[in-house]
Design goal:
The protein is of the alpha+beta class. It folds into 2 domains: 122 residues, no CATH class; 127 residues, no CATH class. 66% of the residues lie in helices and 11% in strands. A 5-stranded antiparallel β-sheet has the order 1-2-3-5-4. A hairpin with a 2-residue loop joins strand 1 and strand 2. The longest helix has 45 residues. It is elongated. The two termini are 38 Å apart.
Length: 272
């Protein structure tokens, strides 16, 4: 499934979509940097160049096993002449190219694989290409940060299954009703919430009625790392039959210690 995002380069919004781990950048939006009213003309003018045809053909030969190299040779031989004209649609249909894509609808336009898009930007303006690459790199860094946060959140969820299993095996008698069981689960979850965040889930919801989800969805990476560790430790403490009140005190001390260490490590990285 394609994912759409926008970057702003020198005041121009440019759409980027990712599909199958490949990024495609809107050539239509890049062309608007030069002339918002004649973006199609600018793009076709670039595609008339022999060097452009050679680059796109070479990219397809390396990345597209279905590329029609015979039709490509015919187009290349005609390129550069005064009568030669080429549209993205004709290039795609004639050569079965995959490096350039035409899309319709709300997020429509002509898109190209980042390699080809950077080549177009270079033809348009060396300065614009520089800032386009910088913004694209910034976007990828932000995605990596989000990926790291999501991975930590998933780790926390997985560890919580270990935590709840320990509760089921040691704290929940078989005679309890499902409603009573949920009360105990909530109580144990709040042991972790209190130890790390200093408040229960109910207290957080009452203080933040406008926010969706729960407090863990708004935790930072350091808090999620600490929470994952605490879930494992609390499961061990439960198996050792340590009373809840004592476990809360122990987990709170551990949370304080671990958060201090994580913050110190983060600060040392920032200083470097």
């Amino acid at each position: 499934m394609a994912k759409n995002k926008k970057i702003n380069v020198e005041g121009t919004n440019i759409l980027v979509y990712t599909e199958n781990d490949d990024e495609f950048i809107s050539l239509t939006d890049i062309a608007r940097y030069r002339d918002a009213e004649r973006s199609d003309y600018i793009l076709q003018n670039w595609m008339r160049n022999r060097s452009t045809i050679e680059f796109m053909g070479l990219w397809e030969l390396f990345n597209n096993p279905d590329f029609n190299s015979i039709e490509f040779d015919g187009i290349k031989n005609l390129s550069g002449s005064n009568s030669f004209a080429l549209t993205p649609k004709r290039w795609i249909e004639t050569t079965r190219a995959i490096g350039i894509v035409s899309k319709t609808g709300r997020y429509g336009g002509t898109f190209a694989h980042r390699d080809i898009a950077f080549e177009f930007a270079s033809w348009l303006s060396a300065e614009f290409k520089f800032y386009l690459i910088k913004e694209f790199q910034r976007l990828k860094k932000e995605e990596q940060k989000q990926l790291g946060w999501s991975a930590k959140r998933e780790l926390t969820k997985l560890n919580y299954h270990i935590h709840t299993d320990a509760i089921k095996q040691n704290l929940i008698p078989d005679e309890l009703t499902p409603a009573q069981t949920s009360i105990i689960y909530a109580s144990e979850a709040d042991v972790l919430n209190m130890a790390l965040f200093g408040k229960t889930a109910k207290q957080w919801r009452e203080a933040n009625p406008e926010l969706k989800g729960n407090m863990r969805d708004y935790a930072n990476i350091n808090q999620l790392i600490c929470l994952a560790n605490m879930e494992n430790l609390n499961a061990v403490f439960i198996n050792e039959n340590i009373p809840q009140k004592e476990r809360l005190k122990k987990l709170n001390r551990i949370a304080i210690q671990q958060m201090k260490i994580l913050i110190e490590v983060e600060n040392r990285k920032l200083l470097k």
